[in-house]
Amino acid sequence: MPNPIKIQATVVSHIKITEGVFSLVLLPAKRRFSFYPGQFLHLAIDPYDPNGGFWPDSRVFSIASSPDSETIEIVYSVKGAYTKRMMNEIKVHDSLWLKFPYGNFIINNFLDSTVTKVVIIAGGTGISPFLSYFRNKNVIKDTSQKHLYWGVKSPEIFNIFQDIDEVLDESFTLHLFCENPDKTALRDYEIGILPIQEILKNQGNNASCLYFLSGPPRMIMSFKEYLLENQVLEENIIIDDWE
Questions:
Q1: Can you give the residue ranges of the FAD-binding FR-type domain (predicted)?
Q2: Residue 242 region, left (φ>0) first, then alpha (ψ -120 to 50), else beta?
Q3: How would you classify the pairing of strands 237-239 and 209-214?
Q4: Residue 241, CB-side half-sphere exposure with 13 Å CA sphere
Q5: Grouped pLDDT means (10 residues each) for the chain, 243 residues
C-alpha cells in the first residue's frame, strides 16, 4: 500500500457539472505519487507550511482519475460550509494541498476465485471511486458477471462520466437511473431512484456475489441494511466509508 504524502497541486480546471456539483482537476507539483483505484485524499484550501506547520482544516474526497494520469480529479457536491468555500473560492491556477492516498475500498483486494459476480451501486457523485477503476482499464480482475448501477437526481450528473462508453469494460452491464427525467438528455436511463429491491432480486444473495456501495451515507446504510435483512453476507457488502 502506498504511503500517504503531502503534496501541493495547481488547479487545472474547476467546472460546474450541474447545480451544486463540481469537477476539480489538479496537477500535483511532483509526479512521484501513487494510489490504488478506490482510494481517497484529503484536500486543504488554506495555506500549509510543509516545514513543520500544522495540517489545515481539510475534507476527504474519492479520487476519480486513473493512477496513471498526470492530474488528479475529484468530484464534489456542495453540502456544507467547506464545500461552499470550495465552490466560491477555488480558481484556475490556485495552489491547494493534498494528502493521500488513504482507504481500503480497493475492489481487487476482495476478489478471489470464488467470486463470480461483482455488483457496483453508486448514488450521485458516489460514482467517483469507481471512475478510477474504469479509467484504469483492466484493473478489475475477471469475474463472470459485472454490473454497474448508477442513480442520479438529474441527467446532467451523468456528465461526470462523459467517457463512460470509451472506458467502461465491455464485460459490465450498465444500469442507469434518474429521478428527474429530461427529454433532451443524450443518454438512455430508467426513471426513478435506485431500486435496491429489484437489484437484489436480479442479482441474488449468493455467497459468490459481492456488492460494492458508494454514495450518500443514508443511501449506503439503508441499502446495506436491506441486503443484510435479505441474507446477503456482511463480508459480501463493501462500502466506501472513507476510513
A1: 4-108
A2: left
A3: parallel
A4: 7
A5: 89 96 95 89 95 93 95 96 98 97 93 92 96 79 85 91 82 91 72 96 95 96 98 96 69
Cβ distance 124 to 216 under 8 Å?
yes
Structural domains in the chain, CATH included, are: 5-102 (2.40.30.10), 107-239 (3.40.50.80)
Which residue type occupies 116?
Answer: T
- Return d(Cα 213, Cα 120) in angstroms, integer: 6
The answer to pTM > 0.90 is yes
The grid coordinates listed for 44 are: 486543504
CA distances from 192 to 120, 151, 182, 226 (A): 18, 8, 12, 18
Report which secondary-structure segment, H or E, holds 237: strand 237-239
Distance CA 195, CA 177 (A): 9
CA angle 94, 100, 103 (to 5 degrees): 135
